[in-house]
Amino acid sequence: MFYSILFQNKEQEMLVNKTEPECFKDLNLDKIFEPIIRRKREFDLQRFFYTNLQDPSLIVYRQEIMRELEDNQLRKVLGSFSEEMYRLDKRMAEIRKALSSEESYENNYLTPWIYA
Asked: In sequence order, what E strands does 1-116 have?
């Protein structure tokens, strides 16, 4: 069963490193990844850049994923799907916020009947 594009299962994802490795500064990798991490802060990407893969099966898994993404048509479809899911998630967050706000409760057309 498919778990994610980066990990074959949840156990592998639990092994991500959340602290910057020392070699990042030595190799100037912090300067390479920092703009990406800053631009997409909401996704908490640094943990994926900081994780050193040790499991050969996971390395092969990611190589196979990248091989599949070389197909331009598939990559476009996945890109469109990702963008649409991102927009949907943002919209759902706005709706949840609006529904849980005090203002929306006061403007709810059912409120007068509930307390009447």
From this structure: none
- Assess contact for 6 and 62: CB atoms under 8 A: yes
- Sign, CA dihedral 11-87-62-44, equals negative
pTM of the entire predicted model: 0.65
Record the tokens describing residue 7, joined without a space.
Answer: 């990990």
Running along the chain, 116 residues long, what does each successive block of 10 average in pLDDT?
Answer: 87 87 90 90 88 90 94 95 94 86 63 53
> Is residue 46 classed exposed, middle or buried when 0-12, 13-18 and 19+ CB atoms within 10 A define those classes?
buried
Nearest partner of 53 among 18, 23, 12, judged by Cα: 12
Cα dihedral 41→85→12→37 (10° resolution): -20
Count of residues for the chain?
116
Pairwise CA distance, residues 36 & 17, whole Å: 17
